[in-house]
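Suppose a classmate hands you a notebook page containing two proteins, each written out with its sequence and a corresponding row of structure tokens. How would you begin to make sense of it? This section walks through that situation. The first entry is reproduced here exactly as it would appear on such a page.
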Amino acid sequence: MNLGGLTPDKAPPLEAPLTLFLLLPVFLVVTGALLIFNGDQLLLSRWTPTTLAVTHFLALGTLAPVMCGSLLQVSPVLLGAPYPQARRVAKVTALGLGLGALGIGLGLLWSSTWLLVSGAAAIVAGLGVFLVASYRALAPLPARSPAGLAVRLALLALATAITLGIMLALGRADVIALSDRLALVDVHAGWGLAGWIGLLLAGIGMEIVPMFYVAPAFPRRARIWIPLATFALLVLLTSGGLVQDSTLRTVAIAGLFLFYAGYNLAAFRLEQRRRRPQRDANLWLWQGSHLGVICAAAAWMLQQSVVLVGILLFGSALAFMIGAVTKIVPFISWLDLQQQRIASGNHRVKLPHMQALLPPHRSSAIAVSLLGAVLMVLAGHLATALVSLGGAFLLTCGLLVAYALYRSMALRSDIAHQLHQPEVAPGTANVQGMVHGGHPAKKPPHAA
């Protein structure tokens, strides 16, 4: 792992990103349960209540929390831009996203205006706090930073997507009149998927993949022009929506698919040239994410159904996010323990390897369950029962992620407790934790 250029001393409290990451398994389980019982409605149309609910459960309940949590962690360590009061920002953002995703998803599922508007208000409150904190954190950052540019544009895209989402919620509640709701939905989806999610994944991915896998770096010119070109195409998409020009919108969407297909192909090829030869579940998830976006672009070009394209895009985003969480959590946990050991001066307690904090077999099980979910849902046009089976896979994936995070946090807590013991009796310095009954816990692998 290449740690050059990082500033781990600026990392936020570990609880800040973890507070947001914990929403991921919750809404994977919620979405999986919905697909089990209502899966036959998913492939009928993009406008069915089930499809709309699944879309917002995934976008707001799984993807957004991981992205916000990753930014809280990556911004200070990678960009040198710490968030003010990170723990408080994380709690407010997590509360807003959790309540908002539930309210909007159930409001769309049950056609409840009250739930929809309440959920939108919670989202505005939670993400509003996050956007203000992001502005304060990134304001001092040099304008020439490629990663900083991508993050700033992604946050601007998030603000735009939120604004458009509020308009759609108010229009659905008949508070305001919308002349072309379909065009506004397309623009809202564009800013959310290609802007907020796509720009952030591309911008951060171009930084962390070379770091974790010692792969060649993206050229600086590409790291600048990919975000700028994407943002320009989103502006073009918005212009097409405002003037109700479907041709302009189609050109913009085609450009976005071509740009992201090109980026993901380049990322896949760079990862193949990595100097770290091992292939782990995280790499499989990231490379599967790249291939999924390329397939989504091809499906759109071949005029396949919007639902099929959406499944591929959300499957790709989930693969990248889950791969990031299962890579970042053990890394930041190990980093936190390293700093605690330095601060306590207790060097007799050895730290576990990062793989002990989240073992490869757990990451592999998570990856297989997610792959099963995506493949079953994609095959749903052959038999609708397969969509429900995909929901079962997704629910299982959520439970596996929850268990992996719990075990990682429990092991870290045990070792942190040992580090702060005032005295360690001879012969017990390397014991890695005690269970509640007082019996020695099994030792994880140790690093020097």
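The notebook's second entry, a different protein, reads as follows.
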Amino acid sequence: MGDKPISFRDAEGNFVSAADVWNEKKLEELFNRLNPNRALRLARTKKENPSQ
């Protein structure tokens, strides 16, 4: 399973790693909520460099 620090317990009382809970989609939503300009910047960059 690798070296994942235990961060908290789930509803059933089991230890859960943040790496198991925070997937790419949830992180993207969090980053965009904390920094609304990020989504605009990423969209602009993607528009300027469509090959990436």
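A careful reader of the second entry would note: The longest helix spans residues 36-48.
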